[in-house]
Amino acid sequence: MRLGRPDLLIAPRASFTDAELPVAPLLAVEILSPSTWRRDLGSKRDAYAAAGVRHYWVIAPNTPSITVYELGEDGAFREEAHLTDDQTRTVRAPVEVTLCPADLVR
Known about the structure:
Elements: E1 8-10, E2 27-31, H1 37-41, H2 43-51, E3 55-60, E4 65-71, E5 77-84, E6 89-91, E7 97-99
Parallel strand pairs: 2-3
Antiparallel strand pairs: 1-2, 3-4, 4-5, 6-7
């Protein structure tokens, strides 16, 4: 997969080759930093959507916040949740996990 590398990804083990991941991951996660946030929220997000990445999460540790996007039928990401501080949300796909931004910076 030639999209640039997300900070974290989830994909089925069988999808990996020795050298790369030739298919879109199930989830791509980007952790924003002052030097990359524009690219993470712009060209990388657009490239992930075009490649068919179903789930895209953006973590902003300085806020702290987590934005959860899901790929819509139109091929664009739509925001499913934006969590800040101690807000929590359990997501079911692509893995079941309860997200809480404050837990990331404690």
